[in-house]
Amino acid sequence: MPTDRTARRAATLIASVLSCDAVLHLCWSTGSTWPARDVRSLSYAVLGADVPFTPPVLLPLATALFTASGVVVARARLDRPHALLRLGTWAVAAGLSLRGLAGVYWLFTKDPGTAFYWLNLGAYTPLCAGLALAAVRVARPEPVARREDAVRVR
């Protein structure tokens, strides 16, 4: 269980970004296409393909994002170790890492003339990579203090 400020700040950052993403998914599930002008352009900007933005697709994603946010914050804030929260935080780190790696792959396979290519290059992939590193920081166990650090010898 990380108790240092860095881990708590990392958890807060991760939860903030994932919660904002979840809220966007909830908005899109109501039929909103913000910030795009229509569903097709939203789909191509967010995913690089024509995918339906319907509640059966978006609501489970929003739920997963909110759950991931809660798990990471709980891992950083609880005063005792909890194996499931640690495992859940590692799962969040793995998911963010996979998205980051997919983003790198898409840089070589997607058309540079599309909005998705540039959003992926400038926002999606770097954000996922940074959040994955932050999630690893939250998930890893606290370092065990060395005996020399714990006991002063004179």
Can you offer a commentary on this structure?
The structure is a single chain. With 154 residues, this protein is an all-alpha fold. The protein has one domain (5-139). It has 6 helices and no strands. It has helices spanning 5-29, 39-47, 55-77, 83-109, 115-139, 147-150. Helix 1 runs antiparallel to helix 3, helix 1 crosses helix 5 and helix 3 crosses helix 4. The longest helix has 27 residues, at 83-109. The mean pLDDT is 92.
Which helices and strands, and how do they pair?
Elements: H1 5-29, H2 39-47, H3 55-77, H4 83-109, H5 115-139, H6 147-150
Helix pairs in contact: 1-3, 1-5, 2-5, 3-4, 4-5
Supply Rg.
Answer: 19 Å
- In which range does the helix fraction lie? over 70%
Number-wise, the strands total 0
Question: What separation lies between the terminal Cα atoms?
Answer: 32 Å
By DSSP (H or I, 4+ residues per run), the number of helices equals 6
Integer tally of domains: 1
The arrangement of helices and strands along the chain is: HHHHHH
Structural class by sheet pairing and helices: mainly alpha
Mean pLDDT: 92
Which spans have pLDDT < 50 for at least 5 consecutive residues? none
Q: What fraction strand?
A: under 5%
Q: Sheet with the most strands?
A: none
What shape does the CA trace take?
Answer: globular
